[in-house]
Known about the structure:
CATH topology of the largest domain in chain A: D-Maltodextrin-Binding Protein, domain 2
Helix content of chain A: 40-55%
Largest sheet of chain A: 9 strands, mixed
Radius of gyration of chain A: 31 Å
Oligomer: homodimer
CATH class of the largest domain in chain A: Alpha Beta
Strand content of chain A: 15-25%
Number of helices of chain A: 10
Structural class of chain A: alpha/beta
Order of helices and strands of chain A: HHHEEHEHEHEEHEEEEHEHEEH
Largest interface: A-B, 41 and 41 residues
Number of strands of chain A: 13
CATH architecture of the largest domain in chain A: 3-Layer(aba) Sandwich
Amino acid sequence: xxxxxxxxxFVRVVETGNFSAVAREAHTTQSAVSKQVQALxxxxxxxxxxxxxxxxxxxxxxxxxxERCRQVLDTLEEAQLEVxxxxxxxxxxxxxxxxxxxGRLHIVPRLASFYARHxxxxxxxxxxDGFVDLVAAGIDVAFRVGExxxxxxxxxxxxxxxxxxxxxxxxxxxxxEPQHLDELPRxxxxxxxxxxxxxxxxxxxxxxxxxxxxxxxxFQSNSSEAIxxxxxxxxxxxxxxxxxxxxxxxxxxxxxxLTRYRAPSLPLNxxxxxxxxxxxxxxxxxxxxxxxxxxxxxxxxxxxxxx
Amino acid sequence: xxxxxxxxxFVRVVETGNFSAVAREAHTTQSAVSKQVQALxxxxxxxxxxxxxxxxxxxxxxxxxxERCRQVLDTLEEAQLEVxxxxxxxxxxxxxxxxxxxGRLHIVPRLASFYARHxxxxxxxxxxDGFVDLVAAGIDVAFRVGExxxxxxxxxxxxxxxxxxxxxxxxxxxxxEPQHLDELPRxxxxxxxxxxxxxxxxxxxxxxxxxxxxxxxxFQSNSSEAIxxxxxxxxxxxxxxxxxxxxxxxxxxxxxxLTRYRAPSLPLNxxxxxxxxxxxxxxxxxxxxxxxxxxxxxxxxxxxxxx
DNA sequence: CCAGATTATTCCTGTGTGGAATAGATGCTA
DNA sequence: TAGCATCTATTCCACACAGGAATAATCTGG
Lengths: 307, 307
């Protein structure tokens, strides 16, 4: 006995005041309607309407129950619409761009559960450490590290790229571990050349004073993966977002140094093109990762001030 | 396929994250639970949760639908409680007191539909034109015409007793129809002696001026039924609530006279004893009749001012 | 007072739900 | 890494039950 249908027929009976009419309307027989109303009364445990073979009237209980039924049916219809909309609009290909290490370490591992939540979305993930023009490349969503330039895009800050100074134990063994910033220029510093070469490393000491150190070394790259590889193999010291090294840190293949000095964090944003009607697909993706990252200590914004 | 049960199991599945546990909890088999969730997904038209034989997670659609389900189930449970309460508390004997004519003409004819709405209430109707002490007589609800005295009772105004001056065509034939108030003392006026003998009839003319006429006649009674009978048989002129004459007016057995003068209406109240917890039974009765009378032109309060 | 319409009831048929068992899959543990 | 334990999907079958048709009973309105 489908209580939903029971309630629907009951509501219609109340509104038309006529079993037979409801039967015709629902392409069924008057017999069925009669039985359904009876079944509902049995289920509810009280007479809902008083029948007199030509018309009925609601009992008090019936009146109360009728109102609730309407409420329930309306809610259910609304639910159906919501689900349908979600099902229809949150589907298809979503083109996502991100820095290489970030994508590998923080996006890909979360895709499985993202797909679980959004089975109809297909992700095309494009990893690039350089600058990517969303419009030109047909990208829907991009993760950006650092300050933003392109003002035509909508940006949402979803975390921070916490940075640290790192080296492999082997390197430190050979060259000694620097204890003060002024030792850095004597070390082999690996320089990331994303948009511009970063050969000045900035710090803030425990007293809150800023320090900038000009560094140099025999290896530069625009690829965070290459830098990671280089550091792990003991080529030198790196100054970069800690998530570039991911497991390497946990596994002890690299070690943070100069921890007395805090390297200012870079903002981590997700950007997308503004649309007249906000795209549920893009929203779903942004919301999902925003939520996920807020629970990830490596990425979540610290309560202390970022640079 | 009972959608209600489907939704219940779905909700439990979401909350426990485990088909088998829900099956045990509902004293059924895991097979049934699996099928029910599938059936719901088919009904809704979208996957609600992504299964991986050891755990699930909600899809976006599932999340939305889950919330709605909770809402629906809560509403339904509330409905069940309401109905149960109504069913339980709106039952038993209700003792009602009213003036004789009023009861006969305005209460009894509405009892059938009142019973339809409240099948479990039994009405003991006690008709009396005199004053009845609610507490002493064990009355739950009383209809009172005129100003109220007993301040220990809760009163609710539910209408007005519109009054008129009436006589039978036969009487008017014999004695002529009075056109002015000052002719009344020469007529045989029948006097109602409810609590006190009303031998002064008051009026308001079209200019709003009050007039009081002292009248007399050869018949007085404390019974409106007796007065009605007397008027119908042409004994004299009466000044009383028009509902005392009910059908007689419509049938032409009595006729309103001196219609240029308005007789001030008396308030019609329903009174009952205040209770710590308001009695649903009394409330149901009062609400029903209050509502019914508000749609009855004989009783409804006029928009023009009453005396 | 009759005619038309409406609801309750009965009997029967066909669908479909749920149970038991099996297969397939996955995560945990040693 | 392999095996075990647990979970879900699926298949097959039997029984229950919902709904249709027809009839009886009841009521309304002209």
